[in-house]
Design goal:
Length: 210
């Protein structure tokens, strides 16, 4: 965990009404005397753990900081449930669901992207796709934690059905390698698309289809 965050959490816990009281109890009577109602709680190195999750004290700033850390990550601005899922791998506080919901509603970037989707450059004019897998969008999610030797994911979305196919890959994948990956994982099942919209630009998309 980030050291600044840890220090801020510790400080917040001392000022927190719920845990401030628990802390006093533990510090004055020692962990052996922890009574009923405290069995889900652990106190470790200045932090409270609730059922193994780091408790975020009742402090708007801290809750925002933790939420932002997960919501606005390398994969972009995640939705409510994904954000909550990621946070609760590590952190918890009472009312987390409502908090995250409100946070995302107030997130300026999420609100802007909703109104103005990112502009993509198609290799063909952006006509309305008619058939399945005729027009696909291709995006790379890069710089993820390495897993089985891969650090990125190629996402391919069919613009007609919105079906998504994900393929693990590496950040420095070339157009030729992408083409092979698409052939093996997607085009063998779906057939070749008529148009590709790529976040790496029309030139890359054109090379992939060569
Ligand atoms: Zn957002």
């Amino acid at each position: 965990m980030n050291l600044d965050l840890k220090a801020a959490l510790k400080e917040g816990i001392e000022a927190d009404r719920v845990t401030g009281e628990k802390l006093k109890q533990i510090l004055t009577s020692g962990p052996r005397h922890i009574t009923k109602g405290l069995q889900d709680w652990n106190y470790e190195d200045g932090l409270f753990l609730y059922k193994g999750l780091i408790y975020v004290p009742n402090n708007e700033n801290l809750k925002c900081k933790v939420t932002q850390m997960f919501h606005d990550n390398v994969m972009g601005h995640l939705g409510q449930w994904k954000t909550i899922e990621l946070i609760t791998w590590e952190y918890w506080w009472p009312g987390i669901t409502e908090f995250v919901k409100a946070y995302i509603k107030g997130c300026a970037i999420c609100q802007t992207t909703k109104i103005q989707p990112p502009v993509k450059v198609p290799i063909k004019p952006n006509e309305i796709p008619q058939g399945l897998w005729e027009t696909i969008t291709m995006d790379f999610i890069t710089d993820l934690p390495t897993s089985k030797g891969y650090d990125s994911i190629l996402t391919v979305v069919d613009r007609h059905s919105k079906a998504i196919i994900l393929s693990p890959c590496n950040k420095n994948i070339t157009a030729v390698e992408t083409s092979q990956l698409l052939l093996d994982n997607i085009w063998k099942q779906t057939g070749f698309p008529l148009a590709i919209i790529s976040d790496r630009g029309p030139q890359f998309a054109a090379q992939v289809t060569q």
